Amino acid sequence: VLLAAMSAPHCGNPFADLSDGFYVWGYGSLIWKVDFPYREKRVAYLPGYSRFFYQSSTDHRGVPGNPGRVVTLVEEAHGRVYGMAYHVPAEKAHAVLEQLDYREKGGYKALLTQVIPVDNPEERLNVMVYLGTTSNPNWAGPASLQEMALQIHRSVGPSGPNKEYLYMLAESMRTIAPDVEDAHLFELEAAVRALDNALAAAEQEN
């Protein structure tokens, strides 16, 4: 379970002590798009939560008026979310925290929790994670699979097409957790690829 939340909506330093650096755990684009220095990375999972495309993106994978959809976490008793934990060294800690806070500014809140490394399930890592809660201004919430697929298929933002984010996340999960079946993620990927294929077929006919 999540251990402690910051009082600010999405900024600042949640750690009392950075003398040993810190771990940040990513479950979305931080799995494959790492633009900060780190000392080590470890595949780790968070129990009690599931990952859903329930967060609007107007700053990375969409724009105001045509937002994309990106992932956040929803508490579920039997859920388990796999991601990547990165250890940031002490000398880079403050700069990386500022960088991450800017990157995750679209409605996410920084919290502290514990994740379980796949390579040592008896260990617990204290990590920072960014979470889009149901009360944040970018919360999109549930929708039908087809509605989400159409939104992701059409949306483009400063960081690129929304579907690229979906495809990269699905491929990353197959790499770091090949035996894990993430139904929401893979069903959404299949639905968006079907739209790609239908569009390609229509263009060929024309």
What features would you describe in this structure?
- This protein is α+β, with helices and mostly antiparallel strands and 206 residues long.
- It is 29% helix and 32% strand.
- It has helices at residues 93-103, 145-154, 162-176, 183-205, and strands at residues 4-5, 22-26, 40-57, 68-88, 109-117, 125-131, 156-157, 160-161.
- The strands form two sheets. It has a five-stranded mixed barrel.
- A hairpin with a 2-residue loop joins strand 7 and strand 8 (160-161).
- Helix 2 (145-154) packs across helix 4 (183-205) and helix 3 crosses helix 4.
- The model is unreliable at 3-11 (pLDDT under 50).
Short description:
The chain is built from four helices and eight strands, in the order ββββαββαββαα. It is an alpha+beta fold.
